[in-house]
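Researcher: I'd like a structural prediction for the single chain below. Treat it as a standalone chain; there are no partners to consider.
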Amino acid sequence: MLYVSISYRKLVWILFIFSMVISNLGLSKLIEFSIPVLIAIYPPCIILILMSFTLKWWKCPSRVVAPTMLTSLIFGLLGAMKSSELLQGFIPDVAKKLPLYVHDLAWLVPSLIVLVIFALYDRKASYLKSGI
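Model: Treating it as a single chain, here is the predicted structure.
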C-alpha cells in the first residue's frame, strides 16, 4: 500500500485551493458535470440494493451479483452519455432502440436478462459441483 506523508498544513492548503476552484466553477457547471456521473452510477446502486435482499437465494452470490451490476453499469453509461451534451452524438443507434431508453431505464431489461442467465448458471454450477 502506498502511503504519502503530507503535513496537515499542506493538506489544508490543497483542500482550500481545490474548494476555491470548484466554487468558482459555478453551480450550473457543477450540476452539468455531476448529472451524468450520477446517472451512470445509480443503476449499479439500485441493483446492489435490490440484490442485497436476495443474497441467500444464491449458492455463490458473486456469480450472480457481479455480472448483473456490471451490466447495469455498462448500460448506465449509455444514460450518462444521453444526459451529457458533449457525448450524445456518440450513442449508437442500436442503443436508442433499447426498451425503456426514452425513460432512462435502458439498463433494466439487459440487467434482468443477465440476472436470469447467471441465476440459472449459479444453480447449474452448484448442481454440477455437488456431483448429484
